[in-house]
Amino acid sequence: MVDGNGTLIKRIFENAPFVRSLGIELVSFGTGWCETSLKVTSVLKQQHGLVHAGVLMTLADHSCGGAAATTASDEQDVITVETKVAFLRPAPVSVLLCRAQVLRAGRRLVFTEAEVFTEEKIVVSKVSSTLAFVALKSS
Amino acid sequence: MVDGNGTLIKRIFENAPFVRSLGIELVSFGTGWCETSLKVTSVLKQQHGLVHAGVLMTLADHSCGGAAATTASDEQDVITVETKVAFLRPAPVSVLLCRAQVLRAGRRLVFTEAEVFTEEKIVVSKVSSTLAFVALKSS
Amino acid sequence: MVDGNGTLIKRIFENAPFVRSLGIELVSFGTGWCETSLKVTSVLKQQHGLVHAGVLMTLADHSCGGAAATTASDEQDVITVETKVAFLRPAPVSVLLCRAQVLRAGRRLVFTEAEVFTEEKIVVSKVSSTLAFVALKSS
Amino acid sequence: MVDGNGTLIKRIFENAPFVRSLGIELVSFGTGWCETSLKVTSVLKQQHGLVHAGVLMTLADHSCGGAAATTASDEQDVITVETKVAFLRPAPVSVLLCRAQVLRAGRRLVFTEAEVFTEEKIVVSKVSSTLAFVALKSS
Q1: Which residue, A31, B136, C126, D62, has most beta carbons within 10 Å?
Q2: Residue D5: burial class (beta carbons within 10 Å; 0-12, 13-18, 19+)
Q3: Is D43 touching C (CB cutoff 8 A)?
Q4: Residue A89 burial by CB count (10 A; 0-12/13-18/19+): exposed, middle or buried?
Q5: Is the CB of A55 inside 8 Å of chain B's CB atoms?
Q6: Spatial CA neighbour of A61 closest among B26, B51, D101, C68
Q7: Which residue of chain B comes nearest to D114, CA vs CA?
Q8: Which of C122, C115, C58, C114 is nearest to C94 (CA)?
Q9: Contact status of D111 with chain B (Cβ, < 8 Å)
Q10: Contact: A82, D130; criterion CB under 8 Å
């Protein structure tokens, strides 16, 4: 059964210390997608005063994981297999939004993509990511 | 002239707040390569108690930038165009090392790759990244 | 001036022997996009009787080049820097269509993406590709 | 049991019409790697008289599949999940060689990489590819 009430995706966002430390928030989700946001603070910058690529990748990766999680069964969890990120434009230090969606959920693999964009809908990064379903560990 | 004394790579590591906040250190470098390390702390974990993919991507991206910087001229800086990361194995919460090297430095683009590995030389991630030379801004 | 009348994209499809030998056709295009098709023949198969991944990649790569070409100036040509292809589903031996579009055309680099799909609109591959503008050689 | 005598890899190269039509040859292999070659003919060119990116991707993809196949059990076959190719340099119309190797073979996924290079050992493309083990179909 697909995780209709979002237990897994909520847990993924609540229980990840690194994601919480950056300030990444789960905004909304449905089967096959999720939206997230991040209010960029000064510590998330790189040497030119822009948002560090690692921050953009973290936001996108976790959002892709969230989207994939909405297609998992009650006994499954998701892990990232690989990801590719294209940095279309420099990302300003402001609020960043991300929408991730599932392109195809197979039996063992989930293909996803994501966009990171500003509040003015300027896309700064485009992401293509493959995840795998794994057995959920009770914790 | 290639940046033989490493002014650019040193500045890239010193002046990036996000990289410093994670604890990423520049260990050594030469023309076309650099090595970095990160002592993983508890806040860098994801929901399963492993190192977050975003941490691995940040470490690799910044190291690729460092390697590329060693091939820049005195008037150039580097920015990441795109990156792909394969997550070969879960990364344990311990010391992680990264070696990045330039595959080819052209006139405008730099192709790099990187490995993230444990102190026991177990490779956890393999990275392929393209960067671009841009004009250095005085700051 | 952007190549409004499609001189470059037409030449890219007419003058590429490999693309012609596979049977790839330019169907339509506008500024920032193009659509192509390929009637898959028996020789384009791999060992399981499906379309070879290399055929899908060739179709997508050339289409991304076409889309990028529509944003080139009269003095520019385009070359592929790197590409990533996700194989969402096996591709049947039938007619395949591809739509490529530019995500961002900068001064020196063009970010594109493409989908390869069947006549029933089933997406079989999703592609993310970076190209570079280079000086057009007279030939 | 790992496929020590290379039944699967040999079949992958013999039974793929597209690969045979290009002239790609299996040169040698062992557990976790294979080497291939391609004598580039005129039909494999793109519009600038260089080797088409699709040819390089086909050579690399099939070689990664071959390397992965050497780590499959007798009941397994391999399929490509995704691949990323960096085009470091233009590839001349001559003999091209490819070496593909397994970075990690898991229970369900195989991470590979490959280099395409000239007889003078100039690397023209670097490839990172993920494959999956699937059940072998009798044919």
Answers
A1: D62
A2: exposed
A3: yes
A4: middle
A5: yes
A6: B51
A7: B128
A8: C122
A9: yes
A10: yes
- Looking at the complex, report in whole angstroms how far the Cα of residue B119 sits from the nearest Cα belonging to chain A: 22
Please check whether residue C104 is in contact with residue A89, taking contact to mean a CB–CB distance below 8 angstroms: yes
- Alpha-carbon distance of B115 to B104, in angstroms, equals 17
Predicted local confidence at residue D6, as pLDDT: 86
Residue A131 scores a pLDDT above 90: yes
Task: Flag if A113 and C104 touch (Cβ within 8 Å).
Answer: no
- B4 confidence band (pLDDT: 50, 70, 90): low
**Which among D86, D80, D45 has a CA at the least distance from the CA of D64?**
D80
CA distance B133 to B80: 9
Q: Does A17 touch chain B (CB under 8 A)?
A: yes
In chain A, what are the domains? 7-135 (3.10.129.10)
Helix (H) / strand (E) element for C17: namely: helix C17-22
Residues from chain A that touch C126, judged by Cβ atoms under 8 A, are 103, 111, 113, 128
Residue C41, CB-side half-sphere exposure with 13 Å CA sphere: 6
Q: What is the ipTM of this complex?
A: 0.93
**What's the whole-model pTM score?**
0.95
Sign for the pseudo-dihedral over CA of B136, A57, D82, C92 = negative
Does A130 touch chain C if contact means CB atoms closer than 8 Å?
yes
| Structure tokens given for D32 | 């976790």
> What does the block give as tokens for D127?
């490839």
